[in-house]
C-alpha cells in the first residue's frame, strides 16, 4: 500500500524580485487537515484501524519537507528565525564551481538589496523549512498514536527516513544539486522502532540507506534472493554499537557524453519558461554541464572525499574535508600535501567500492530463447522494487525475497518517508 501527493503555498514574488527563484512561498491556503499529506496519513490510519489479519507493508512518502518551502499554519510560523544558529556561510572559494553558478543563475546575491540582506532572508527561509519538518513530525505522531490504538504496536516495525536533505540557506543556496554531496544533502534521519529493539539507542557510527533493505528482510525473516550491498542493522537496533571503521558512499551527477541525462534536455521537455522556479537549475545544466558532472563520495567518521570527474575534465573540483576539524565542510583540503595519505586511502576505498559493486549477475537465468524462470504459484514470494533513496545516492536493486516460514517473526512493516 502506497500513498503520495502534495500541496504548496503560492509564490507571491514577481519574476524581477530577487526572491522569486528562492522557493520560499507563502503558507498553504488550506488548513493542515486539507493537505494531501494529512489525508494520506489519515488513509493509512484507517487501514491500521481495520485490523488487517495478514502481514502488510505500508509505504507512506510525504511531500514535506521539500521545496517550495511552505507548509500550513501554525507550523509555517512556528520557528523563530532569530533563535537559529548561524547557517553555513556562502561564497567560499574552496567550494566547487556549482555553488557560485547556482547563486549566479538564481540571482541570489541580489538578496543583499533587501533589508537585512541575504543572511536574514536565508534564516527566515530556513525557519520555514524547519516548520515544515515540524508539520511532518506532527503527522508522524498521529500515525504512531493510531498504531498503538490499533493493537499492532508489538508486531510492526516502523522505519522513518528521508531520501535527501536540502541546502535550505546553507552555503547561500536553496534546494539541492545533482552532484552536491555535502552532509546537508546526504546525511538524513533514519529512525527504526521495532519489537525487541533497545529504546533510545543512538548509533553514532556510519550507516547508509542501502541498509534498510537487509534490515527489513531480517526483521521479517525473509531471505534475500538478490545481490545487495547493504548491511543489516538488527544488532544495532538491539543495542549494539556500529562499525566505527565503516565507510559509506553516495553518488550523483551526469556525464557530458550522456546529454539526455541532464535536466532540461530537449528529449525530456527542454528548459521551462523563466516563470518556472526550476528554470535557473535546468538552464545552468544545459549551459554549464561540467557544473553537474558525475560525483562520488566516500565518508568515514573523520573524513570525506568527494571526487568529480568527466570526459572533459578528469578531476573537476573534487573535495576533501577533515570532519573532525571542519564538520561544516568549509575548508577543502583536497590536494594539500599534509592530507595526501588520507586522500589516497579514501580514493582507494572508492575504487574498491566500485570494483566490488559495479556489476552483478542475476540469480535467475534469463535465456535469450525464452522467458525467465517464474517462481511456482505455491512459493511464498514477496515482489518489491525498493525506491532509489535519491539521485545523489547509489540506486537500489529490484529484488525478489522469499519468505522463510520456519520461524515466526513479526512481518508488518510501516515506512514513513519525508
What portion of the residues fall into strands of 2 or more residues? 5-15%
Shape: globular
CATH architecture: 3-Layer(aba) Sandwich
Class by alpha and beta content: alpha+beta
What value does the average pLDDT take? 89
Assign the CATH superfamily.
Answer: Alkaline Phosphatase, subunit A
Q: What is the H/E order?
A: HEHHEHEHEHEHEEEHEEE
Binned, the helix content reads 10-25%
CATH topology: Alkaline Phosphatase, subunit A
Q: How many β strands by DSSP?
A: 11
How many helical stretches? 8
Main β-sheet: number of strands, strand sense, barrel status?
A: 4 strands, mixed
**How are the strands of the biggest sheet laid out side by side?**
1-11-2-3
Radius of gyration: 23 Å
End-to-end gap: 17 Å
Q: What is the highest CATH level, the class?
A: Alpha Beta
Question: Could you walk me through the main structural features you see in this protein, from its secondary elements to its overall organization?
Answer:
One of its GO terms (molecular function) is iduronate-2-sulfatase activity. Keywords: Hydrolase, Metal-binding. The chain has a single domain (20-362, 379-417), classed as Alkaline Phosphatase, subunit A. The chain has 418 residues and is α+β, with helices and mostly antiparallel strands. It has eight helices and eleven strands. Strand 6 and strand 7 form a beta hairpin. A four-stranded mixed beta sheet has the order 1-11-2-3, sandwiched between helices. The two termini are 17 Å apart. It is globular, with a radius of gyration of 23 Å. 24% of the residues lie in helices and 13% in strands.
